[in-house]
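Cross-check.
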Amino acid sequence: MAVKNIILDFGGVLLDLNYMRTQQAFVDLGCKNFEQIYSQAQQTDLFNQFDKGEVSEKVFFEELKNLSGLKTITINDIKHAWNAMLINLPEENYTLLKELKNKYRVFLLSNTNETHITAFEKLIPETCPLPEFESMFEKIYYSCRINLRKPDVECFLYVLNDSNLNPAETIFIDDSIQHIEGAKKSGIAPYWLQKGVSTTSFLKEINIL
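Predicted model, tokenized:
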């Protein structure tokens, strides 16, 4: 069947990310094992709970202080380190969204948390007004607000059911390989955007543009 719906990940697909910046920021604060606590590929359950909105910012950052051994460091310094991975919304990706919106039903599905939402909502206006960015999507799904996260198949099924999408007409783009299997189980056709490949060139390669 023809593709009618596109579900896009946010960080690493539309928003530029660098996980190493957060890892280095925690090392600079004095944490020597942050890569064991959190990375793009895996993370301890505290981060999963925060991404699903199951713990508050206050609880998350207090627990993160303990996990990282930074008990004397201020919450503001730890929050700054946590946000260091967020870079910007490239103009190219904003242009891409406008093109996609004219051809498809477009959705955003992101594993994220309220702290990062606050931070990237301040970064997006460097490229375009926030309301204009949000208008590029028929609906935005943030894991901390739907209490579900990728790669759990329930997360993908929620989006399909909530927006009445036929999975056979839907593709999903993500830069994290572990999310691909969950999407497959829901019937969506998932595509892995590998590091170093622009989203625009990738979508041209798979004949979406």
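The chain is about 45% helix and 15% strand. The two ends are 17 Å apart (CA to CA). Passed to J.P. for a second look.
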